[in-house]
Amino acid sequence: MDQEAIESFRAQARLYKHIFNYVSSMSLKCAVQLGIPDAIHNHGEPITLSELVSALGIVPTKASFTYRLMRVLVHAGFFATTKVNKGEEKEAYVLTPFSKILVKEKINCLSPFVVGMLYPAMMMPWQFLRTKKSPFETANGKPFWDYMDHDPVFKALFHDAMRSDSQMMNLVVKDCEQVFEGLNSIVDVGGGTGTIARVISEAYPQLKCTVLTSLTLWLTYQLLAT
Ligand SMILES: C[S@@+](CC[C@H](N)C(=O)[O-])C[C@H]1O[C@@H](n2cnc3c(N)ncnc32)[C@H](O)[C@@H]1O
Q1: The organism sits in which domain of life (predicted)?
Q2: End-to-end C-alpha distance for the chain, whole angstroms
Q3: Does 105 fall in a domain?
Q4: Residue 169 pLDDT level (bands cut at 50, 70, 90)
């Protein structure tokens, strides 16, 4: 093969990798919605395909599709495979660091972030990057925060995504004493669900933490709390 052909095939492979990048994010969303990280975690040991299909309540005739989905997810690094011996040697799936933070019972679970950020209203704007108006408004008919008030499912998923993302602060805030040194109070502007303020306030109870956020969000949370 001549040099030009080699270069073209390498370029094609790279191009296709980028064209089909969405396959891994959409497969990840599907894995979270099916509850695959929880099923593997709850199994307590490496899980074979047939055990996974049964744990997920998928009809056995669809096992081959689950296998293909798992191949994509393993390739992307979300899960890994190992060998188990159950009478005969079989392939089985285990969690990786990327899927350990998607298990629902963990305090720092990012599954809501996966579902919220990959919601159709968040994906469609990418089809309209060339438009004069904002891509989000072109795709969804309203600016971001206004749209949210017209799509309660998105609103709930978005704020749950923000809460799960903020929850990660639990891992570091207690080690950031110097950041808050000499402060008596802080205001989290656009603090949403108040998760970050709560995490900071729990780590530094002497700090007065105030959350400034949109009134409609605050009212939604008050209604949900009652
Ligand atoms: C990126 S999110 C921050 C999320 C926050 N860290 C949490 O854990 O929920 C920005 C927040 O600002 C709020 N917001 C948007 N526009 C606002 C406005 N004009 N005034 C006050 N808050 C606003 C939104 O409701 C949203 O919750």
Answers
A1: Eukaryota
A2: 71
A3: no
A4: very high
Q: Does residue 139 lie in a domain region?
A: yes
Q: Is 112 in the pocket of ligand 1 (CB under 6 A)?
A: no
Q: Which two tokens stand for residue 6?
A: 């080699």
**Residue to mutate (ligand 1; options 201, 214, 218, 222; most atoms within 8 A of CB):** 214
Within this chain, do residues 23 and 128 fall inside the same structural domain, yes or no? no
Interval between CA 189 and ligand 1 midpoint (Å):
7
Q: Is the pLDDT of residue 71 over 80?
A: yes
The residue that leads in pLDDT, 99 or 213, is 99
Q: Which amino acid is at 185?
A: S
- Residues of the domain holding 185: 111-225
Residues 21 and 62 grouped into a single domain = yes
Sole residue written with tokens 């891992």: 171
Residues with Cβ within 8 Å of residue 107, at least 6 apart in sequence: 167, 170
Across residues 161-173, what is the average pLDDT? 94
Q: How far is the CA of 192 from the centre of ligand 1 (A)?
A: 4
| 12 and 87 co-located in one domain | yes
Same domain for 130 and 96: no
